[in-house]
User: Which sequence fits this backbone?
């Protein structure tokens, strides 16, 4: 094995890509700050119990584990920052009002989250705690749209779902096999993959009303007509009505040309509790941003708080965003001249890139990407166009 | 790619898919049996077909290299189905996945005794699940074809394979001893494509579903 090879699905960010990622990171965090989101930076490792709180088994499998040699307890490398931020809100800040937090950092996945996915995404997100009303969901969707605009990425589709519909129907299942968690997991997998033949089999013993409602779910996706179809196909239960009303209000905030719905999209069903949303881009086989409401997660940390938010992977976003060209610098000779040093400092203070040409590297000068140089003319250091050696 | 790409394998699946595509107004311009082209155009400029190995179909669709695909349930079970929607059972390329042993081998007895069976198969994942559910210990031997040969030359006690008419089994002195599941082909769809290209895909899906029901 060659020593410099990286593990599977782990990669370096080389200058061009790193520049892109950093440009996006600053742009997005600055934008979040303008909306009142405070930056937090949770640790890369912490005890496994708090990392896996409220998440499903997928998250357990996805988390790298190690033994803390100080305490003998199992620690995990975070695979998702969201539960960490929920812990900060519920336990450390102890504010009663609305809390807005944002974060950006690498997470590590023992198993890649999807095909072709990196095992070290750079997760960037924003979370809003303390407001159960739809205004908070709306704010998150609008913030996501603004973030994509800042990044220069055009979403092809913003897709909305609501776990409330599935929960309301699941509460009315009759057969004992489907009332236990394993059975519901099977139902959930079949719905998630819109696998109608398997759904028919699983629901064979259910009363017609429940069965027909479940069988309608996989078809309830698409654009503006979905909610009207849902109202006619699904039973008129108060929870279902509330969920569809919420979806209707929230979708109104999005350009109808990109708004979509999928009532069988149960991603994050283990911790989501209300409206969920995903942004898709043309040519991408996976969503580029995921978000939604998860009111119960804080409970495990001592305080259940209404919560909603979204996150995205900066590496993926960087591939979609318009390229950031490197800025050309000014080449300065290597010299002890005090006037030169003062001029270089002044230029840097103005935001110019000034690179010192160290002696003996004239051959490789073009690697420094400079367009100008400092030349001593008429008794002062002046910036002149760089003469290319032929 | 702005239009729609459909992945499918040549042979039985291709032939039995043609009427379903025709119902959606799609007619291929070439026959993969006579043409060596791997990308086949259709009468619709925005729809093309890609010809892949049957077991590769879910992979092409999962990665978004194709928006749609037609894959046997056997292949989907081995693949796991991650990232795919599989809404329609096309009821084509029907067969069954079964356990077969040489004539005279007492399968029931061997399983009951708790012996460790040697099983040759192309469907390692599905076979492992099946025997694990029965509580039978097996050593699986992955083969890529001609499974029927394995028990005849002492490579395995039993095979797990697709059976349609049973002719190949009979010709090689094997008997079907256990039916694992019925197999037919499914329409699979890339999850992001269904959302992003919904307007293009919906009429095609509805036409195919309508044709299947008839």
Assistant:
């Amino acid at each position: 094995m060659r020593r410099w090879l990286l593990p599977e699905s782990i990669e370096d960010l080389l200058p061009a890509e790193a520049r892109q990622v950093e440009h996006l990171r600053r742009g997005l965090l600055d934008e979040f700050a303008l909306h009142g989101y405070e930056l937090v930076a949770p640790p890369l490792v912490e005890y496994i119990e708090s990392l896996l709180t409220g998440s499903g088994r997928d998250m357990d499998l996805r988390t790298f584990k190690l033994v803390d040699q100080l305490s003998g307890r199992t620690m995990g490398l975070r695979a998702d920052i969201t539960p960490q931020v929920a812990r900060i809100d519920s336990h450390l800040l102890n504010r009663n009002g609305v809390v807005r937090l944002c974060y950006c950092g690498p997470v590590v996945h023992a198993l890649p989250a999807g095909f072709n996915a990196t095992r070290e995404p750079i997760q960037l997100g924003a979370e809003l705690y303390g407001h159960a009303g739809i205004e908070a969901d709306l704010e998150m969707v609008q913030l996501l749209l603004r973030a994509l605009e800042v990044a220069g990425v055009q979403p092809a589709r913003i897709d909305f779902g609501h776990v409330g519909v599935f929960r309301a129907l699941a509460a009315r299942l009759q057969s004992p096999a489907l009332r236990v968690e394993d059975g519901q997991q099977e139902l959930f997998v079949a719905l998630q993959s819109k696998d109608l033949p398997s759904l028919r089999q699983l629901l064979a013993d259910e009363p017609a009303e429940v069965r027909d409602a479940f069988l309608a779910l996989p078809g309830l996706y698409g654009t503006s007509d979905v909610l009207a179809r849902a109202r006619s196909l699904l039973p008129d239960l108060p929870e279902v009505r509330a969920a569809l009303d919420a979806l209707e209000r929230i979708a109104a905030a999005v350009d109808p040309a990109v708004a979509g719905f999928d009532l069988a999209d149960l991603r994050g069903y283990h911790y989501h509790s209300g409206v969920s949303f995903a942004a898709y881009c043309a040519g991408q086989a996976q969503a580029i941003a995921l978000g939604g409401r998860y009111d119960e997660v804080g409970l495990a940390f001592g305080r259940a708080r209404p919560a909603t938010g979204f996150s995205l992977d900066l590496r993926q976003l960087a591939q979609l965003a318009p390229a950031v060209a490197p800025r050309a610098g000014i080449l300065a000779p290597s010299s002890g001249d005090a006037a030169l040093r003062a001029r270089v400092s002044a230029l840097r203070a103005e935001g110019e890139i000034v690179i010192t040409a160290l002696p003996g590297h004239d051959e490789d000068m073009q690697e420094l990407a400079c367009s100008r140089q400092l030349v001593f003319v008429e008794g002062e250091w002046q910036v002149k166009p760089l003469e290319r050696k032929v | 790619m702005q239009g729609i790409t459909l992945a499918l394998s040549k042979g039985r699946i291709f032939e039995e898919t043609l009427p379903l595509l025709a119902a959606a107004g799609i007619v291929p311009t070439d026959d993969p049996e006579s043409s060596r082209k791997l990308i086949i155009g259709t009468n619709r400029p925005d729809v093309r077909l890609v010809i892949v190995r049957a077991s590769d179909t879910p992979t092409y669709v999962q990665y978004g290299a194709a928006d749609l695909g037609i894959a046997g349930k056997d292949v989907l079970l081995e693949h796991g189905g991650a990232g795919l929607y599989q809404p329609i059972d096309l009821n084509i390329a029907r067969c069954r996945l079964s356990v077969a042993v040489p004539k005279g081998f007492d399968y029931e007895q061997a399983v009951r005794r708790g012996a460790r069976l040697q099983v040759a198969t192309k469907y390692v994942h599905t076979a492992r699940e099946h025997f694990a559910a029965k509580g039978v210990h097996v050593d699986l031997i992955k083969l890529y074809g001609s499974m029927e040969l394995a028990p005849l030359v002492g490579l395995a006690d039993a095979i797990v394979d697709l059976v349609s008419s049973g002719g190949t089994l009979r010709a090689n002195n094997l008997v079907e001893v256990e039916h694992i599941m019925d197999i037919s082909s499914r329409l699979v769809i890339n999850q992001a494509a269904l959302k992003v290209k919904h307007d293009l895909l919906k009429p095609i899906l509805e036409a195919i579903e309508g044709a299947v029901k008839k």
Summary: Residues 53 and 300 of chain A are 7 Å apart (CA to CA). Chain A has three domains: 7-154+282-326, 155-280, 329-385. The first helix of chain A runs from residue 15 to 34.
